[in-house]
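Summary of Year 1 activities. Much of the first year was spent building the evaluation harness for sequence design. The harness presents a backbone, in tokenized form, and records the residue chosen at every position. We chose the following record to illustrate the format because it has been used consistently in internal testing since the harness was completed.
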């Protein structure tokens, strides 16, 4: 198969582009000015050799001979002016490069200071969390027990969710005035229970606010904080997420915390199963922010129907289908306990 013939015009255009690029690189290089001076010197020699010397050694003849260089003098004057313009352009380019370097260095310095303070605040937050103490309980266990008290109290009083009849009318949009008053009572009791049982750790909450404040507003304008936000939130467990949510929900004085939680995208880390729906509705109604209910991904990447068919097929083949799995370490520990129990009975 023969190749296509390139038109002459296209070749000339390509050659012109390549020549222009080569000339541009030469001008920008160190040898550009030297080559230009050499070309001017050669041109001067060529023109000077073309002017005939006077045959008669008189003042008039030498005057005419000197006047012959007038055009060349004008040429060199123009070349001198052009050289001055080129010098100014080169200086401008150099100044611009220096400004770009200075800007780049300044941005790197700002980024370094931002990261240093952010990581220092993150260390302070971890240290503060480890120092939280209520009686003999310390660290995250304090938060875990507070959340456990909240869950137990709302279940004990029966205010952990909407009654079935109200839920049906809520979903259909047909709530009565009495329904709304009953919902107000549920919300009132939840506010009282959460505010009492959560026991806000003021030092921990204040430190967390400072961390979020710097992460959000301390970043330089040229820096994107997405990666830093993911890094910080990766250090915050769901236990802490729910704890800070309940503090923001139940304490009106924590306006700064609510503002930072909203603007940093903090609530995107809270899954659907970890916050009561009633608390979500309360936060939306009283603090104006809806928490998205994210569906948790399935533990097995297989559809429910496919799993059911697999279980039936295994059973039809004479097997005993199993839907759960006990970790090996748990089974081994249970086996040790059973053996110890047998030895005691014997």
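For this record, the design step produced the sequence shown next.
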């Amino acid at each position: 198969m023969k190749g296509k013939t390139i038109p002459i015009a296209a070749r000339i255009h390509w050659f012109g582009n390549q020549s222009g690029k080569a000339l541009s690189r030469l001008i920008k290089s160190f040898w550009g000015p030297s080559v230009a001076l050499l070309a001017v010197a050669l041109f001067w020699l060529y023109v000077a050799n073309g002017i005939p010397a006077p045959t008669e050694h008189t003042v008039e003849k030498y005057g005419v001979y000197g006047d012959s260089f007038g055009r060349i003098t004008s040429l060199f004057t123009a070349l001198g002016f052009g050289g001055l313009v080129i010098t100014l352009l080169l200086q401008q380019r150099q100044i611009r490069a220096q400004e770009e370097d200075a800007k780049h260095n300044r941005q790197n310095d700002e980024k370094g200071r931002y990261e240093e303070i952010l990581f220092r605040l993150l260390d302070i937050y971890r240290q503060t969390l480890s120092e939280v103490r209520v009686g003999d309980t310390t660290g995250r266990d304090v938060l875990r027990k507070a959340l456990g008290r909240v869950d137990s109290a709302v279940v004990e009083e029966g205010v952990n969710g909407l009654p079935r009849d109200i839920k049906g009318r809520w979903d259909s949009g047909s709530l009565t005035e009495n329904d709304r008053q009953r919902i107000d009572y549920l919300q009132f009791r939840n506010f009282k229970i959460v505010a009492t049982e959560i026991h806000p750790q003021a030092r921990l909450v204040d430190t967390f606010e400072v961390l979020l404040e710097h992460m959000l507003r301390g970043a330089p304008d040229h820096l994107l904080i997405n990666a830093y936000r993911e890094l910080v939130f990766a250090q915050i467990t769901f236990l802490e997420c729910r704890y800070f949510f309940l503090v923001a929900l139940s304490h009106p004085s924590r306006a700064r915390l609510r503002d930072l939680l909203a603007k940093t995208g903090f609530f995107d880390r809270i899954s659907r199963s970890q916050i009561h729906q009633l608390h979500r509705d309360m936060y939306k109604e009283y603090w104006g922010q809806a928490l998205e209910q994210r569906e948790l991904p399935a533990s097995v990447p297989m559809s429910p129907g496919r799993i059911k068919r697999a279980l039936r097929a295994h059973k039809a083949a004479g097997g005993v289908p199993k839907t759960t799995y006990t970790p090996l370490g748990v089974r081994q520990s249970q086996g040790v306990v059973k053996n110890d129990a047998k030895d005691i009975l014997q």
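The chain has a mean pLDDT of 81. Quantitative recovery figures across the full test set are reported in Table 2.
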